[in-house]
Amino acid sequence: MFRRAFWFTAGAAAGAWATTKVNRKLRQLTPESLAAQAADKAVEAGHRLKEFALDVRAGMLQRETELEEALGLDTPVDPALPGPRRTALGPGGDAPGRREHPHPTHPYNRNEDH
Predict the structure, then answer these.
(1) Which ranges of 29-77 would DSSP assign to H, the alpha helix?
(2) Measured between alpha carbons, how far is 31 from 23 in angstroms, rounded to an integer?
(3) Which residues of 103-114 are buried (b: 16+ CB within 10 A; e: fewer)?
(4) What would you measure as the largest C-alpha separation in the chain, in angstroms?
(5) pLDDT tens, residue order, the chain (114 aa)
């Protein structure tokens, strides 16, 4: 009698445990749950990407500092040296005295090239 009661109880417990596991898995596979999991993974990936970008930026700044030191670019500028070269181009990238006519008399026609 005790043996039957033991096996009955063991079977009922195993059935309850299996039912609980199956119900949890079914809840995980609902569309709402899958969408929430995807959103969580996307946020996590965004955080990892941001950390990676910050690491790259820190490495770039460190390497730039090393290169500046190696090339002597971090030394103060001597006032006796000439200043930076000036280019012949104006602020818009055009030559200073040259201006484009706002309405050209002969507009470019790409069909004429053929």
Answers:
(1) 31-71
(2) 15
(3) eeeeeeeeeeee
(4) 111
(5) 889 999 999 999 999 999 999 999 988 889 898 999 999 999 999 999 999 999 999 999 999 999 998 888 876 667 777 666 655 555 555 555 555 555 556 666 666 665
Sign of CA dihedral 43, 44, 47, 52: negative
User: How far, in Å, CA of 80 to CA of 95, rounded?
Assistant: 30
Residue 109 has φ and ψ, to the nearest 5°, of -120, 110
* Secondary structure of residue 92 in the 3-state scheme: coil
The answer to whether residues 33 and 27 touch, using CB atoms and an 8 Å cutoff, is: yes
Rg (the chain; Cα; Å): 37
Tokens of 107: 């507009």
